Amino acid sequence: MASVDMDSDISAWTSLAFKMSDFFSMGQGGDTSINTRTATNQINDSHEQLHVMGMDTGTFPNEGGGVSCCRRDLVNNLQYIKWHIVAETANDYGVPRFQIEQNIQSLKLLPLWGLDFLTPTHGVIENQLDTAMDAKLIDTSNADIREKFLPILTSLVRGARTIKYTPANVEEFTRALVRLNTYFQTRNWGVVWKSKAVKNKWRELWLSKSMENTRPIQEWFSLERPSIADLDTALDLYSRCTFSSMSFANLDLFIFSLPVPEQLPTVFQATHHSIGAAYGIVCKIKRHCTFQIWDHAISWRETNMYLSAAQCSFPPFVRIALIGLMRLACHLNYHHADVILPCTNYFNPGWEVELGSCEGTLVHRKKFFRKVDPVVNGICNLGNFSTVKEITTQIPTVTMLSHVQYTKDPKTALLAADVIVNKWGFKDYKLDIYGSLDRTPSYTVECQEIIAAKSLRQFVALKGYGNAAKVFAETWVFMNSSVSEGLPLAIGEAALCGAPIVCTDVGATFQVVSDPDNPKKRFGAVVPPNDPEALARAQIAMLAVMDEWAEYGEDDVPPPPLPEVFTPKDVEWITKRMYEKRSQRQKVGSQLRHIVERSFSGDRYLREHEQMLWLGKHRNEAKRERLAAENKELVLNMLDDMYTGIEPREYRPEFLRHVSGFSAFNSSTSELNRSTLSVRTTSFLIDDAYSRKSVAVRHPYDKALLSPTRAWLMGTRSSSDASSEGTGKRLANSTSFDYESESEGVPSVE
Q1: What pLDDT, on a 0 to 100 scale, did the predictor assign at position 281?
Q2: Cα distances (angstroms) measured from residue 255 to each of 11, 176, 691
Q3: SS (H, E, C) 322-370
């Protein structure tokens, strides 16, 4: 009961809390809809409801963290969006940390290893019978593997080894992923990957000296050259990787064993651009769904960190093979994505442009940037966080809400504590770190060893998971020491509680503490990453309201700056000042709440996300109409009133058209923001009589993605052009390649 935090009045009656609807439905978790009997016929879009397939890896619903909370906010607050979640998890005995019934129509947990003895999971939206899985065993033969699977394997290895990507490479490697998925619809995953023919071919491909556009094995450093054991380890990891406990280092192909359902939601949204997200490419090509990448961080960047020699114990060749697969997935995902939604408008979009355009070789950087449309993170539950009136701890306490893992860099925080306590001599100091301790157990052990070696047990504690409200009530200063971030929610939550902030200058973290009207003015300390002494000095300055914060100290005589070398006398008077300046320090933190309410509103955040999902639906409808027109077929389009001719038209669902600037959710700040939002986001209304702007969904490289809070003006047409062209031609082209074939042969390319 403790692990699921069951309420006492429920657990007193039964050990498992079932609803009556669960018994009626007799379905697995996430399948408990009393209005339907199967998951397939739940996919029924209308003007008032949209179904979306969400792909998460190592996060929602079994793991905590910022990415999981972002998915939770969308699931819980967008009442007209119905989700079909495919979640890659470390194992098959995890406990969901979030509700998985409301707005979730189906849930498929895909364990990368665990109690299933490495057999494929049975389907995505509906499971297959065991007899069907047995038939796959019968159909898998050595001759079949040599004839049909080895060419696929050749393309995958070539993609992992390729030096410079070309359009022809992208087409070849995309076909390989589609054929990989098609092949394993009727074959057994484990039997194929463990066959002797595959093992021999794998070794031959990696040791090849003549493969074009690759670095020959003879040019490798001797340290990089693989042994037979290294080659076998890499092959095993390709088929089932053991990195899924790390949110951004999931490098396995196992998800491609899942057959693509005949009926699929029209929008596929992944929260990263790793291998798991590439399943969206297959869904897009086979079922023409819209592929969205909702980037929270740069998976390519974080994966390289995790696979560095400092973090990964695998031999160099194994790391090279895994990084090559990640690079392949990164380029393909960005290339095929219809829209990329980074969680910040600073720093990460630049990475996405460079990776998606292959540094300008596949497509011009400016052209690729058209499909990058940031949806800046927001905090949806603003009402849950109020300014702390009184700090409950009696000594100066610095807190962190960070998982104990490499990208959050708690080691630097520990070394900063060592500088404060042992080098400078401050004894009235405490550092509490809240977050998961088991994501990277070896890293946690290293942190505990630092605490012991530096004699910091009295001053530093690794607390595990904690309640955010209680943590902020104990906080004198909130700290974030990450080496890589997008836009961390924890800092925004701390700001809402009025906690002074010390953070590293990574990603868009600085935006949380910067005045939007005057970005040069900040209400929190921002220091370089990987600098323990700078982090330590920033903490002492904030605690004592000194240096750049001295103007808030309300002193008759300004205090001197922090000394370079601290004497016992300096420590004594600075410590005394920490206790005396409690109210002044809180005034600095209270400025941050106004910044978060203004710049990171949950209303704006949810509205923009809902708009992007609905526009993904409209893009799909446009493609269907184009394909139907080409094949002279009739399509029954549920969006038949989207455009009827010359009357004013609005590019948004009918049920939202009476609302000005708002979505189908409730927020604690709705009334406060209504006046400003209604002016800024009047609607998607474009009067044909005045502008004749064509709301057309073009090829992703031709589509000018503007802000989702403004009308999407795609191009200009004359009145005669607008009146003469049919609706099907108005909703223009969607993609350059078309991989329609479900057979195991080479799909056709237009």
Answers
A1: 96
A2: 36, 14, 47
A3: HHHHHHHHHHHHHHHCCEECCCCCCCHHHHHHHHHCCCCCCCCHHHHHC
Look at residue 106 in the predicted model and tell me its pLDDT.
84
pTM of the model: 0.77
User: How many CA atoms lie within 13 Å of 100's alpha carbon, on the beta-carbon side?
Assistant: 25
All domains in the chain, ordered by first residue: 1-35 (no CATH), 382-599 (3.40.50.2000)
Residues 330 and 272: their CA atoms lie apart, in Å, by 9
Distance CA 537, CA 527 (A): 10
Tell me the DSSP string of 375-422: ----BS-GGG----SS---SS-EEEEE--SSGGG-HHHHHHHHHIIII
Written as six digits, the tokens of 315 are 């031999």
Cβ(620)–Cβ(289) under 8 Å?
yes
Quote the distance between the C-alpha of residue 4 and its chain's center: 24
Helices of type H across 140-256: 142-144, 150-161, 167-183, 189-193, 196-206, 228-239
The bridge status of strand 685-686 relative to strand 649-650 is: antiparallel
Do the Cβ atoms of 513 and 495 come closer than 8 Å?
yes
Q: State pLDDT tens for residues 318-350.
A: 999 999 999 999 999 999 999 999 999 988 999
Name the CA dihedral angle for 346, 351, 352, 353, rounded to a multiple of 10 degrees: 100
- Contact indicator for 87, 108 with CB cutoff of 8 Å: yes
691 pLDDT higher than 50: no
Q: Which residues contact 27 (CB under 8 A, 6 or more apart)?
A: 33, 39
Return the sign of the alpha-carbon dihedral for residues 521, 522, 527, 532: positive
Listed in sequence order, the DSSP H helices in 254-347 are 279-287, 299-306, 316-336
Q: Is the pLDDT of residue 185 over 80?
A: yes
